[in-house]
Design a protein that fits this description.
By secondary structure, the chain is of the alpha+beta class. The protein contains 11 helices and 4 strands; from the N terminus they run αβαβαββαααααααα. It binds glutathione.
Length: 248
């Protein structure tokens, strides 16, 4: 299976230190003092957590197990009716979903973190372009690769669809690879787009070792390494992806 957060390695004390399941209901009108992230290890919730960590703000991570399909439990559906993670509860209690929208919002609420280039600049437009490209052209393919039986009859047809979805993911990541300014995705420097694309490079089952060997993605790999080494993100990276070998 290639679920984006598949538990590939042994659980460590670090990874299990997250609360295992929802601690209690969170409603849109419940006042919270810090951000609350709902997600699983190695999932799309990495991008939310990394952005908040980079911004240097407090947050709580509530673990929703994809392996146990907890995202489809009524309790989580109250948080995100589409049964997807990440979901973010803002300090005022409002619930926000969609990983790209969350990145834009965190960047806007914490401008000093420099998660996006200055408003109005072309660099900012490019950040929007690549984050939206990943959210709209790549992320939906992950659902097809992870849960093909949602889209085709179970068995050979679903498996064939999974293969096709993975091909699209690979082809589209190569488009991003060819557009990396270096060393970061944008010529203006580090941004939330780097956090986001680094996450997609970690979902190795979607890429496949053989494909990576034949289609090196050195620029995206360098971005992933750079993101993993940012002082505020490094512990987050370790919790989500540290179990992977080789790391890059
Ligand atoms: N459009 C959503 C996609 C999120 C998504 O597909 N997340 C995966 C985990 S990486 C998920 O929750 N999958 C569970 C499911 O589809 O049942 C976003 O960008 O936040």
């Amino acid at each position: 299976m290639s679920r984006c957060p598949v538990q590939r390695g042994p659980a460590t004390a670090q990874t299990l230190s997250l609360p295992f399941v929802l601690k209690g209901p969170v409603h849109a009108n419940e006042a919270t003092v810090t951000y609350v992230i709902f997600g699983d290890r190695s999932s799309g919730a990495f991008s939310t957590e990394a952005a908040l960590a980079e911004a240097g703000v407090e947050y709580e991570f509530r673990r929703v197990s994809l392996r146990d399909n907890a995202q489809l439990e009524p309790e989580f559906l109250k948080v995100n009716p589409s049964g997807k993670m990440p979901a973010l509860v803002l300090p005022g209690g409002e619930v926000l979903t969609e990983s790209a929208a969350i990145l834009f919002t965190v960047a806007e609420r914490h401008p000093d973190a420099g998660l996006l280039p200055p408003p109005g600049s072309f660099a900012r437009a490019e950040a929007y372009r690549w984050i939206v490209f990943l959210a709209c052209e790549v992320y939906p393919m992950v659902e097809i690769a992870d849960y093909p039986a949602r889209f085709a009859p179970e068995g050979a047809e679903a498996e064939a669809l999974r293969v096709k979805a993975r091909e699209r993911i690979r082809e589209r990541l190569l488009i991003v690879e060819r557009n990396v300014a270096g060393p970061w995705l944008l010529s203006s420097g580090f941004s939330a787009a780097d956090i986001y694309v680094a996450m997609f490079t970690r979902w190795r089952d979607d890429l496949g070792a053989e494909w990576v060997a034949q289609n090196p993605i050195p620029k995206l790999t360098a971005i992933a390494r750079g993101v993993s080494e940012r002082p505020r993100i490094a512990p987050v990276w370790q919790r989500h992806f540290g179990h992977q070998t080789p790391a890059f």
